[in-house]
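Record passed on here:
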Amino acid sequence: MSRIIAFVNDLFFATKIAETARLNNAEITFVRSEHELLDYLSKETELIIFDLSNKALDLGIVKDIRSNLSLSKVKIIGFIPHVEVELKNKALKIGFDNVYARSEFSKKLAEII
């Protein structure tokens, strides 16, 4: 069973992610803060999903995760409004594996999970 953590505060996307995870037999945990994320994060975590529109998110957390060798295999993705090109580039530079436009994320969610 896949272990996924989602730092998502948008109810529409949270519901969509939860349902897709259920259909794919993946274990999903939703967090609302970096502290919660770090509490749930372990070497068994396979994927972290970030809503980059979430104002509570400090992208520096990704640098911290990437610097931890035991978490090096965790896939980190994000989704954003398609007009946020600068934020997408910043996230990729920090260590995200991929950043999707919201519409693309919705379409590819089953593949991602």
User: Anything to note?
Assistant: Residues 11-23 form the longest helix (13 residues). Residues 3-112 form a domain with the Rossmann fold fold (CATH 3.40.50.2300).
